[in-house]
TrEMBL record:
Gene3D superfamilies: Electron Transport, Fmn-binding Protein, Chain A
Superkingdom of the organism of origin: Eukaryota
The protein's name in its UniProt record: Pyridoxamine 5'-phosphate oxidase-domain-containing protein
Naturally occurring in which organism (per UniProt): Rhodotorula diobovata
Classification via PANTHER family: AGL049CP, PYRIDOXAMINE 5'-PHOSPHATE OXIDASE ALR4036 FAMILY FMN-BINDING DOMAIN-CONTAINING PROTEIN
Annotated Pfam families: Pyridox_oxase_2 (PF12766)
Residue intervals of the Pyridoxamine 5'-phosphate oxidase Alr4036 family FMN-binding domain: 10-130
GO molecular function: FMN binding
Taxonomic path: Eukaryota, Fungi, Dikarya, Basidiomycota, Pucciniomycotina
Length: 266
C-alpha cells in the first residue's frame, strides 16, 4: 500500500496540462514543440551555436493518459492524487546529436504554439538524458549522461528504468523500429547498408517479439532509446486568445524554493 503524498505542483503545470488537453481535442499534431539546445562541437563556429528541432511531448514524469499504460511505479498516493512531477518528458535516441549536446550543456528552451487555444508557452530549463542502463556509445568521444535521478523523481523510490520502458512500449511500432537504425545524422554512404532493409515495425518488448532476429532488434532499439527529462526554471505564457492579450511569467526562486508568478506586458 502506498504511503506517499503527492507534492504540490506549480500553477503553470495545471495551466499547461489543461491547455494541452484542450488543444489535442482539436488537433493531435499540436503535441509537438520546438526544443533549442547549444552545440559546442560544430565546425561552423568557435562559440556555441543554437540548434532547434521539433520533438513530441510525452507528458510529465509518471503521467498516465490511458488505462493499461502501466509500470511498477505507483500512479496515485494514498489520498488518490496523481503522483506526477513538474518535469516534462521527451524521448530520443541516445546516439543523436541532441543527446550529445545536452550531455555537454543541459540548458534548453522550449517554444510551444498551441494554436487551437492561441497560447504560446516558452519554458526555460535544464534537460537530462536517461539512457539504457547498459548504453554504450559507438563513438570514441562517448558522452556520459549526468542524471540527477533523485531530484527529478516524483516519489522517493521512483524506478526510472520502469518509466523508460513504459515510454518505449507506448511508442508506435514504426517509431520503436527507428531506434534500430545506424547512428542518427551519420552518413548512409559511409554506413554502406540500405535503409529499406531495416525493420519497419517492432513490437512493444522482447516478450512480444517473434523469433530470435526480432528479439535482437527489440533489444537493440531499447538500448538506443532514451528519455529526456526537463526541469524548468522559468515559464512564459502568452495568451493571444484573450482581449486584451495577457502574458504571465512563473520563475523558480532558488532562495525561497518557491515559484513566483508575475503578470507582464505581452
Ligand atoms: C513533428 C515532429 C516530431 C518529432 N519528434 C521527435 C522526438 O520526439 N524525438 C526526437 O528525437 N526527434 C523527433 N523529431 C525529429 C527531430 O526533429 C530531428 O529531426 C531529429 O531528432 C534529429 O535531431 P538532432 O540532430 O538535433 O539530434 C521530430 C520531428 C518532427 C517533425
Amino acid at each position: 500500500m502506498s504511503t506517499s503524498t503527492a507534492p504540490a505542483l506549480p500553477a503553470w503545470v495545471d495551466k499547461l496540462r489543461s491547455t494541452v488537453t484542450a488543444n489535442l481535442k482539436e488537433n493531435k499534431d499540436l503535441i509537438s514543440y520546438a526544443l533549442a539546445t547549444h552545440d559546442t562541437a560544430t565546425p561552423h563556429s568557435d562559440a556555441p551555436v543554437p540548434r532547434v528541432r521539433y520533438v513530441v511531448h510525452r507528458g510529465f514524469v509518471n503521467e498516465r493518459r490511458k488505462e493499461g499504460d502501466g509500470s511498477s511505479n505507483e500512479v496515485k498516493d494514498k489520498d488518490g492524487n496523481d503522483l506526477i512531477s513538474d518535469k516534462l518528458v521527451i524521448t530520443t535516441d541516445a546516439r543523436s546529436p541532441k543527446a550529445r549536446q545536452l550531455a555537454a550543456t543541459p540548458t534548453v528552451e522550449i517554444a510551444w504554439w498551441l494554436a487551437a487555444t492561441q497560447h504560446q508557452f516558452r519554458l526555460l530549463g535544464r534537460a537530462y538524458v536517461l539512457p539504457s542502463p547498459s548504453f554504450s556509445s559507438p563513438s570514441s568521444s562517448a558522452p556520459s549522461f549526468p542524471f540527477p535521478a533523485e531530484a527529478l523523481a516524483p516519489t522517493p523510490s521512483f524506478n526510472w528504468e520502469a518509466e523508460r520502458v513504459r515510454q518505449f512500449r507506448k511508442l508506435s511500432p514504426e517509431l520503436r523500429a527507428s531506434f534500430c537504425r545506424p547512428v542518427p545524422g551519420s552518413s548512409v554512404r559511409e554506413w554502406g547498408g540500405r535503409l529499406e532493409d531495416l525493420p519497419v515495425t517492432l513490437p512493444e518488448g522482447v516478450d512480444e517479439a517473434e523469433g530470435d532476429e526480432q528479439k535482437k532488434q527489440v533489444e537493440q532499439a531499447l538500448e538506443n532509446f532514451a528519455l529526456v527529462v526537463i526541469d524548468c526554471t522559468e515559464v512564459d505564457l502568452v495568451d493571444l486568445g484573450s482581449q486584451p492579450n495577457t502574458r504571465t511569467r512563473w520563475t523558480f526562486d532558488t532562495a525561497s524554493n518557491e515559484w513566483k508568478e508575475e503578470e507582464l506586458v505581452p
